[in-house]
Specification:
The complex is a heterodimer of chains A (94) and B (130). By secondary structure, chain A is α+β, with helices and mostly antiparallel strands. Chain A has helices spanning 17-34, 49-54, 81-88; strands at residues 6-12, 38-44, 62-67, 72-75. Chain B has one domain (3-85, 102-123): Rossmann fold, CATH 3.40.50.2300. Chain B is 45% helix and 20% strand. The chains are: A alpha+beta (94), B alpha/beta (130).
């Protein structure tokens, strides 16, 4: 994995039309901004609440950027591109 | 644009916490409190809030029946169910979600900063910018 690869986790509530839309919104943004330089995993809090607690997630949907450090997270508002990019400190890939 | 935030729960301490936290968000928001399920449905119909927080374990309508009642009235309004993130607490909610009830989760107990962050995320992040 190169140093510029972003590692992110999206925490969602169940497997619903809303959570699927949230995944698609985030993937679209990351595709546009980072191309292939990211790894996104999705955690269903219903199935894995322990992981949510471990990452200090207190609501859904939450995106946690694990790498590169510093770790950052944002809650909801995934449709607002600038909010997501600034909140997670994501820089556009050249 | 002014928003209304509906907080449904029977704990006055929780209501006061939401009023303080929402005031700190910088959003132009009004908090509406309801202490029972029936009052919550009435308040929802009267105020049409942009965001609903539902504190579990209240008198009146069963918790998830209340969420369903709100969802029937508005299929899109964000509903945040406040619950501990423990498997035992989540099992019933998961079953409801698998039957098609859509809502989000907020960890309980939560701090003022958590309430403010969720409120900001929902109300300020609703504009499609891409």
């Amino acid at each position: 994995m190169s140093q510029s690869t972003y590692v992110l986790i999206l925490f969602v509530t169940g497997e619903t039309p809303t959570s699927r839309r949230q995944v698609q919104q985030l993937q679209r943004l990351l595709d546009d901004e980072l191309g292939e330089l990211y790894e996104l995993s999705v955690v269903n809090v219903f199935k894995d609440p322990d992981t949510a607690v471990r990452y200090d997630v207190f609501a859904t949907p939450t995106v946690v950027k694990r790498l590169p450090e510093p770790v950052r997270q944002i809650v909801d508002g995934l449709r607002d591109r600038e909010r997501v990019l600034s909140g997670l400190e994501i820089e556009h890939a050249p | 644009m002014a928003y209304r935030v509906l907080v449904i729960g029977d704990d006055a301490t929780v209501h006061r916490a939401f009023e303080r936290a929402v005031a700190d968000t910088g959003c132009e928001c009004e908090v509406v409190n309801a202490a029972s399920g029936e009052a919550g449905v009435e308040a929802f119909e009267a105020y049409r809030p942009a965001l609903v927080f539902l504190d579990l374990s209240m008198p009146g309508l069963a918790d998830l029946d209340l969420a369903r009642a709100i969802r029937e009235r508005d299929p899109r309004v964000p509903i945040y169910v406040m619950t501990p993130f423990y498997r035992e607490s989540l099992d019933e909610l998961r079953a409801a979600a698998e039957r098609g009830l859509e809502f989000e989760l907020m960890h309980k107990p939560g701090g003022l900063d958590h309430i403010a962050e969720v409120t900001r995320g929902v109300l300020l992040g609703t504009v499609e910018t891409y």
